[in-house]
Amino acid sequence: MLKKTLLLLVGIFIMQSCASKKNILYYQDIKDSSQNAINYVSNEIQVNDILYITVDALIPESAKPFNLNLNSPTLNTQTIKIQGYLVSQQGTITFPILGELKVAGKSTLELQQMLTKILNDRGYINDANVNVRVINGKVTVLGEVNNPGTYSFDEQNISLNQAIGYAGDLTINGIRKDVLLIRENNGTRSYIKLDLTSSSWFTSPYYYVKQNDVIIVNPNGAKVMTSGYLSNIGSILSIMSIGVTLFLLLKK
């Protein structure tokens, strides 16, 4: 009886520890040599973004009043963030000479075009060349990944795959079919469930990460069952050993 009980316990543990291939492999519906068009998107500027804006012209002196004083010999990313344009809760920035400008909801390209038009139309600069970048883009990855945390990025676009790569990929216990993406946009918070075993979301608005996105990977049943007191094999064996000891004592 004892032998059968032990075998049953070991069998249950092994079954819980095994993972099905269909629950582990990414993008199982992708066929060899298949192709899809890439649709690049321009992220919209959001509240609390920090913008780095430069204005150039053929005559540098004419553009100087529209640039922040960022010519420090110790100039670095942190200095630029401190001196950059912080988008207010009202979605605005205060730009030299031009004053308060509504920027939230625009892409960086749209803001570049808007500033160029204003500078040209008002006669400030005839040949303005404006460059706009968001310099505090970040994404947070939590849950069953190898290195959870908040990661900064400088690119205009990074994919969800890249964001997960920053966090060291999902652990073997992460549920690939139920990844939660939390996104804030224009004062609205959205919750999106994604299935990483399928490529169907590649053409959705969620392929590219937006600044301030949060990605949460939940643990599978095996990880939940082995948490707490059953956090490792040693704990399980100890409990089984105690059980066997008690059984033998009671049998006497």
UniProtKB/TrEMBL annotation:
Pfam families: Poly_export, SLBB. Coiled coil: none annotated. The keyword Signal applies. Keywords: Membrane, Signal, Transmembrane, Transmembrane helix. PROSITE patterns: PROKAR_LIPOPROTEIN. Residues 44-134 form the Polysaccharide export protein N-terminal domain. It comes from the Bacteria. Residues 1-19 form the signal peptide. Residues 138-191 form the Soluble ligand binding domain. The chain crosses the membrane at residues 229-250. PANTHER family: POLYSACCHARIDE EXPORT PROTEIN GFCE-RELATED (PTHR33619). This is Polysaccharide biosynthesis/export family protein. It comes from Flavobacterium paronense.
